[in-house]
Amino acid sequence: MAKWGMVIDLEKCTGCQACTAACAMENNRLPGEQWQDVVFFTEGEYPSVQAKWFPRPCMHCENPSCVHVCPVRATYKTGDGFVLVDWNRCIGCKYCMIACPYGVRFYTDEKPLVGPDLKTVFKSNDERSWNPPWKMPDARENWKRGVGIQPRGVVSKCTFCYHRVSKAPKGVADLSEHDPETREYTPACVVACPPTARYFGDLDNPDSEVSKMIANKNGVRLLDQLGNKPQVYYLTGSGGAVPSNRAIRKT
Amino acid sequence: MNHFAEPRNFAEVARYLVALWRREGTLQFLRLSSTLGSEKSVAGEMWKYGVVFGLLSFAFISYMLLTEGGAAFNTSSDGINWGLAVSTYVFFALTSSGLTFIASLSMVFGFREYYAVAKRCIWLAIITLGAAFTALALELGHPFRMLWAMPSGLQYLSPMFWMGVFYLIDLVLLLIKFDRLWHDDWDSPLSHFLSIASFVAVILASGMLGLVFGSMVMRPMWYGSFTAVYFILTAALSGTAAIVLATYLAYGFRHENMPEPLRSMASGKALSKVIATLSGIALFSVVTRLWTGLWSNLDGLEGFHALVGSPAFHLEVWAGLALPFVLMVTPSLQRQPRWQITAAALVLPAMFIDRHLFLVTGQAVPMFKGAWATELTAYVPSVTEWAITVLSVAIVFAFYGLGEKLFNLAADPRHKVRESAEEGNLVLKPVPAGRAASPTAPGAAS
Q1: The three-state (H, E, C) secondary structure of B13-75, written as one string
Q2: Chain A nearest CA to B406, separation (Å)
Q3: Which of A81, A242, B86, B443 could connect to A3 by a Cys-Cys bridge, CB 3.0–4.6 Å?
Q4: Does the beta-carbon distance from A223 to B218 stay under 8 Å?
Q5: B370 neighbourhood in chain A, CB within 8 Å
Q6: SS3 for A133?
Q7: Contact A231, A4 (CB under 8 A)
Q8: How far is CA B271 from CA B95, B117, B238, in A?
Q9: What's the CATH number where A163 sits?
Q10: d(C-alpha B435, C-alpha B446), whole Å
Q11: Residue A108 contacts by C-beta under 8 Å, 6 or more apart in sequence?
Q12: Tens digit of pLDDT per residue, chain B (446 long)?
């Protein structure tokens, strides 16, 4: 069984946010509720200030603290490496949000992160929390896997586009937008990335492109000291850097 | 306070209420029910205001949740995930645990002077736990789903799962224990077993609530086994403050209104010593935690700097812990009711502040999402969140008033002996040859 993982080359990432837009369209995200975010920040002070950005999906950790803390097993890890949320079980306690070191989880039932509140503009007429005109086909929704438009009172997160990746042919090492055979199974953020800064493949397969890149280009994981062992690796090279844990000025 | 004859079971309560309704008519029955009797009493006032504020706050919360849902809260995925409703839950759950600790002093460890407040502690522990569960249920997205999802999931790795298990066991044991005390069973093997089991359950429950936070290595302000110990110790402190305040409140803050065993206890040092010891330990814990937090360079501890600048934190430390400690260790003050009441009235709000600051500052340092944030996350609870706190307080007041009226909360195992003696029929148990005769244990009095 594959262990799916992602590699993001920070030297190539331009911060264009095509990944964010693609994810939002693919997964019907509310504005601000970005499962795949690119966060912009500054380092240093004038005149040495630098504008930086950092793409951040769910890390689908090997050792996910969000899974361990969930009191009802609503969030779980699959055999092929996805960390998913069962919206039929989630009680909305938000403990997984507390326990996620990467801040990638979102609670549905709260003030809109970005206005106007589209949940009131596109009001739901069923169990879904809202009813956008561009939503994915009903048949593709899978609440046991956290795919689709979530109901009220649950937590949602990036699924690594489970609805696409889980249909990939068995034994394939990489899912690439450049390969017509695998394009439709590749996560939306990877497909949409203009500079091809994202790669997706089987981390357990030594011949996969992602495994080779991690080995040859010293792939690093975010907040590795916490032991969650993310399945998203960053290539920093000479042009990019994984930001420091926290950049709050000490007083 | 004079009690009417304490009913022995709920069927008796129901029969009494039906008889009262038939005798007085519906309007008069409702009027009497709203004040718990024809005479004005502290219990009746607690019940009346508790019900009024409880219903008003519940109506407001229901309206807000039905119209706005979780958006009525100021919690956010980008900032503070757990807000005032969770602080309220933690405060009341730990106060309940502390009350059980105080009850255990007599019922498990044999410190007989604490018998006078044991039954009151158990009743208060039940209703404060009920208030805690209410606050939590209103905060959760799907509270009723928990009823089947937790037992079917059995996520034994989750501290929250175990917290739920132990608090449920705690509640069941408290209810059975209260039932036994209601029937004057203080000394049977079952009663002893329940007391010990309840004590163990409540240690595990409050400790596990501490580990809900203490297990979070990604939240350095919470992380560590110290959190569980801190929760257990401060639970005992808030429980002690609660029982002192509640006992005086039931008698209109008038020492002379109390029945004898309680009056002796109040004029002694029994509870003052506990407040002094625990407030001293809590003060030391808060200050050392602050010290290590300010001293360390570890990322994620910046919330301690915010604590130093927070007026609420200084109020907690100086007025809520240091002052009560001084009051309760001063020999000339610790026996005086007014200073006992003052100390308890300072400690209890301080413990509420402590729970809230602990919860909020632990989340105020942005996680990775805010690695680039240069400020701590701001959080001001919404009116709906405050209404949940008001509802929880109202529940405690209403049911304390009801319990005060319905049950003889001042009962202790010695009252059976006293009552029998007053009736002139105290019977001495036959003493086996070779053993000295002594007044019998309560169970032997007929």
Answers
A1: HHHHHHHHHHHHCHHHHHHHHHHCCCCCCHHHHHHHHHHHHHHHHHHHHHHHHHHCHHHHCCC
A2: 36
A3: A81
A4: yes
A5: 103, 246
A6: coil
A7: yes
A8: 15, 10, 12
A9: 3.30.70.20
A10: 21
A11: A129, A150, A151, A152, A153, A154, A155, A156, B70, B141
A12: 444 567 877 788 888 889 989 998 999 888 888 888 878 899 999 999 999 999 999 999 999 999 999 999 999 998 899 999 999 999 999 999 999 999 999 999 999 889 999 999 999 999 999 999 999 999 999 999 999 999 999 999 999 999 999 999 999 999 999 999 988 899 899 999 999 999 999 999 999 999 999 999 999 999 999 999 999 999 999 999 999 999 999 999 988 889 888 888 888 888 999 999 999 999 999 999 999 999 998 888 888 999 999 999 999 999 999 999 999 999 999 899 999 999 999 999 999 999 999 999 999 887 765 445 567 888 999 999 999 999 999 999 999 999 999 888 988 886 655 555 555 544 444 444 444 333 333 333 32
Q: Which amino acid is at A62?
A: E
Question: Helices H, strands E: what count in chain A?
Answer: 7, 10
Smallest CA–CA distance, residue A32 to chain B, in Å, is 9
- Chain A neighbors of B381, CB-CB under 8 A: none
Q: Does the residue A242 lie in any domain?
A: no
Q: How far is B315 from chain A (nearest CA, A)?
A: 22
Nearest CB to A91; choose among B149, B368, B369: B149
Question: ipTM, 2 decimals?
Answer: 0.93
Nearest CB to A98; choose among B145, B216, B300: B216
**Residues of chain A contacting B77 with CB distance shorter than 8 Å:** 33, 97, 105-107, 110, 113
Task: Using a CB–CB cutoff of 8 Å, tell me whether B370 touches chain A.
Answer: yes
Q: What is the spatial distance between Cα B130 and Cα B399, in angstroms, rounded to a whole number?
A: 10
Query: Could you tell me how many CB contacts below 8 A there are between chain A and chain B?
Result: 175
Would residue A248 count as lying in a domain? no
In A144-183, where do the E strands start and end? 155-156, 174-175
B185-205: b or e for each residue (b if 16 or more CB lie within 10 Å)?
Answer: bbeeeebeebbebbbbbbbbb
Give the separation between CA B71 and CA A111, rounded to whole angstroms: 4
Pairing of strands A4-9, A232-235: parallel
DSSP secondary structure string, B321-360?
IIHHHHHHH-HHHHT-HHHHHHHHHHHHHHHHHHHHHHHH
Q: Taking each helix axis from N to C terminus, what angle separates B115-139 and B84-107, rounded to the nearest 10 degrees?
A: 160
Structure tokens that stand for B444 in this block:
């032997």
Position A246 in a domain: no
Give chain B's radius of gyration (CA, Å). 23
Cross-strand partners of A235 = A9
- How far is CA B57 from its chain centroid? 20
Q: Nearest chain A residue to B360 by CA: give it.
A: A98
Separation of first and last alpha carbons in chain A: 50
Q: B84-107 and B226-250 are packed helices; what angle lies between their axes, rounded to 10 degrees?
A: 80
When scoring A52, A54, A91, A95 by the number of chain B Cβ atoms within 10 A, the one with the most, hence best to mutate, is: A91
Within a domain: residue A243?
no
Interatomic CA distance for residues A68 and A63, integer angstroms = 9
Number of domains in chain A: 1
